[in-house]
Each structure stands twice: as C-alpha cells, then as structure tokens.
Amino acid sequence: xxxxxxxxxxxxxxxxxxxxxxxxxxxxxxxxxxxxxxxxxxxxxxxxxxxxxxxxxxxxxxxxxxxxxxxxxxxxxxxxxxxxxxxxxxxxxxxxxxxxxxxxxxxxxxxxxxxxxxxxxxxxxxxxxxxxxxxxxxxxxxxxxxxxxxxxxxxxxxxxxxxxxxx
Length: 167
What we know:
The structure is a single chain. The chain is built from six helices and no strands. The chain is mainly alpha-helical. The chain has one domain (7-162). The termini are far apart. The chain crosses the membrane at residues 6-29, 41-63, 75-93, 100-122, 134-158.
C-alpha cells in the first residue's frame, strides 16, 4: 500500500459516499424532483450554506498543529466561498431574480470543484488523516453528503423542459 494509505479511513469515506448516494436517490430525489424547481434548488442550496464549517480547519486545536496551514486555508476559504454562494443563490431563488439560475450554476460548479480539489489535495499531500483531528468527520461524512447534494442540483439544472414548467 502507498505510504500514508489508511484503509479504515478510506473505507469510512467510501461507505459515506455509498450511503449518501443511496439516501439521495431513494429519499431525497423523489421529493425534490416533485417540487417547483426554484423551491427544490433553494432547499438543496440551504444544506450547502453550512459549509462555513470548513473554516474550522484553521482553528487551533480543532486540527493537529502539524496539518499544513496552506491546506487548512485552502479548504477553509473554499468552503466559506461555497457557503456564501449558496446563500446568494437562496436569496436569488427566493426573490426570483433573473440571475437566480446562473447563480445556482456558479455556486454548484464552484462547490463541486472545491470539494473535489480538497479531496485531491488531501489525498496527495496529507499522509495522515489523523491530522484532521476533530475535523475528520468533515471529509469522512459531511463531504460525501455535500457531493450528493451537488449531484442533485446538477440533475435539477439539467432536467429537460421549459423554465416556465419548472419554476
């Protein structure tokens, strides 16, 4: 196995991805696809508004002092940006602004790429997931849930039909 490979952590993350996908497809997707499009997108964006939690990677004592400050900063600020974009999307959807759907696209693309980048950087640069300290649950549980939410948002954005039928 490669150095730094931690099978229990990898299995935990894989289990969270699988469970998130199953719950999203069995329980969440049937519910949100039946909702008016703006309402469904607003609901899914609300879940992502809590991404400010990633800022905790920069809090002393939350993670190991040995965790790369560059990694912590990248994760924290990326998540705060995603949370801000989610909140702006929620406001735009609630007020039916003309920029609402483009804003959701921006939020969803940014948020997805930010999470994938954090996993990539974490997997290639962080040799010990124990350095995440109390933050271990963010990549092990919260990120798989967030990625499942991003997939659902993409599914809603890409559904065929006119805007008038889906609003």
